[in-house]
Amino acid sequence: MQYGAQRVSDINLSQVRKMFEQASPTAINLALGEPDFDTPKHIIDALKNALDEGYTHYSQNKGEVKLRETIVDKLKKDNNINTTADNVILTVGASEALYSTVNALIDPKDDVLIPDPGFLSYREVVKIAGANPVALKTSAENGFNTTLDDVENTVTENTKAMIINSPANPTGSVMPKDEIKAIAEFADENDIIIISDEIYEKIIYDKKHYSFQAYTDNAVTINGFSKAYAMTGLRVGYLSACSEIIDEVLKVHQYNVACIDTATQIAATEALTGPQQCVSDMTSEFRKRRDLVVDSLYDMGVECIRPDGAFYVFFKQDNPDEFIQKALKEDVVLVNGNAFGEMGEGYIRLSYAQSYENLQTAMERLAKIA
Ligand SMILES: Cc1ncc(COP(=O)(O)O)c(C=O)c1O
User: Fold this and answer.
1) Average pLDDT, whole number, for the chain?
2) Residue 328: partners with Cβ closer than 8 Å, 6 or more residues away
3) Which of 228, 241, 312, 319 is at a distance of 20 to 30 A from 334, taking alpha carbons?
4) Regions of the chain with pLDDT less than 70
């Protein structure tokens, strides 16, 4: 008997996790996309107080009004998006925002453009919806950035949506304002929805982040607290969109999770309204680590782009599998770029969400095998 439904049986489990499981417990893990910092204390204190104050019951399906209003203010201030609390849904991380959005908006006959190389979940989530992922290819020549030309050359007559991720996992590329604007206009003219994953918004170095939703109603903004506030395990994210989209997404969200953890919503409110120094401190530390990794790779004669955002370096290797196996023997865990799509062939992703000291040791070990 085949237990798995057709649309689920050919879903791949994450290669990043697989690499992690192969490694020895003492290995330096440069595979996982998880900030190594502790969640800032004022956020933890807010969570503890929320539990003491009895925030252990269901919240509204869309989430606590206070946090949604706080997100509305944030979207106005940081992203130039004008919206209301009714147009925001709090989700179990950005992951659930992505899942609920795709499953609410996409039919099996639809094509969905997904970045290649791109975050592993995009392809699989589109496949779970029974729809067809179409690779929106980027390459090192244009800094792994998606351009309007790329979109125009890839779009099909069945394209219902495109997923875009800036700053990007796994390449760290950041899209410029003119490209965001141009793609937003294209989406408007062609009735295509942009699902914009902005989870790395705050981890950006010399560039500025822009949001599609500032330019079109055809965009869903997905964001969360995992990366900016080192809150991966608290599982809180959100999406913002026009009412027509929110009404549909709410149906999937409601019957999937009812609502997210209520006490965590209080902690997330504190994250947005409390001191923001922790965010800039973490980002400055990420910048130092990026420079350490990129400079060490350059010293080894390895080709890579110095990324503008997120916490990954995507570097070139003629034989990634061999390099990764040699790195594993040196107790350093990396991920093959081809896990992120065809265009990741010939690359390796290194996550520098690890302490500076561990990165120094890891880079010394990699220098021995490069
Ligand atoms: C591009 C991207 N989007 C979404 C997520 C998931 O974030 P969350 O922890 O909020 O579910 C990740 C996590 O690695 C990611 O890299």
Assistant:
1) 96
2) 22, 23, 27
3) 228
4) none
